[in-house]
Structures are given as structure tokens and as C-alpha cells.
Amino acid sequence: MRHTITLLMAAIVLTACSGLSGGNDKPKPKYGRVLAAAGGSGAVVVSLGTKDGVRSGQALPITRDGKVVGEIIIHEARESQSVGTPYGQSTSGTIRVGDMAVLRQ
Asked: pTM for this structure?
């Protein structure tokens, strides 16, 4: 009987603690590639979509070699791709095919 109670108490404690974290549980960003870029202020297509958590109106930074080169505002989010337009000042030229889009959650 005592063994059963001990196991039951251990199961309750484990269940209660399962939602706790070690303090470093920030969601990791998702990365996608720039698949098409019209240049200048044209459309940019990225390989992140609604299945990844992208929504219309969302801003995505665009990086190259680990540095932010621009940012786009998504105006059409589909399941696996999204279309946006650049805004603000580009820090390192225009957004190009192969650059990385970053989705922070």
C-alpha cells in the first residue's frame, strides 16, 4: 500500500512539474529563404507561410551572412510561402534571392 501511495505521489509531482521549464524555454526562431525579389520596392517571396505562423501584416527581418539587410511587411500569407514588400531603410543593399527571412515567435 505504501509503495502504491509513493508511486501515486511521484506521478502527481511529475505531472504538476511537466509544464515547468529550466528558465530557458524561449521559442526558437524559424528561418526561410527569399525565393524571389523584384528589387527596389517590389514584392519579396519567402519560404515561410501560415503553417510556420506567418500572418498578414507581420514584419520579418531579412538577413544575409547573419546581418539584417532589410525588413518586409507580409501582405499575403499562404500555407508554405508568403509575399511581402520591403520597408524602411536597407542597411546593406537590396534584398536578394537566397537571403534569409527570420520569424520570431
From this structure: 0.72
In a domain, 7, yes or no: no
Q: Residue 15 domain-assigned?
A: no
- The alpha carbon dihedral of 44, 50, 52, 55 has a sign of positive
Q: Is residue 97 helix, strand or coil?
A: coil
Counted residue by residue, the chain has a size of 105
Full domain range(s) for residue 58: 25-103
Q: Which three cell numbers stand for residue 66?
A: 547573419
Distance from C-alpha of 51 to C-alpha of 99, rounded to nearest angstrom:
20
**Residue 27: what pLDDT?**
84
Q: Which residues of the chain are modeled with pLDDT < 50?
A: 7-8, 10-11, 14
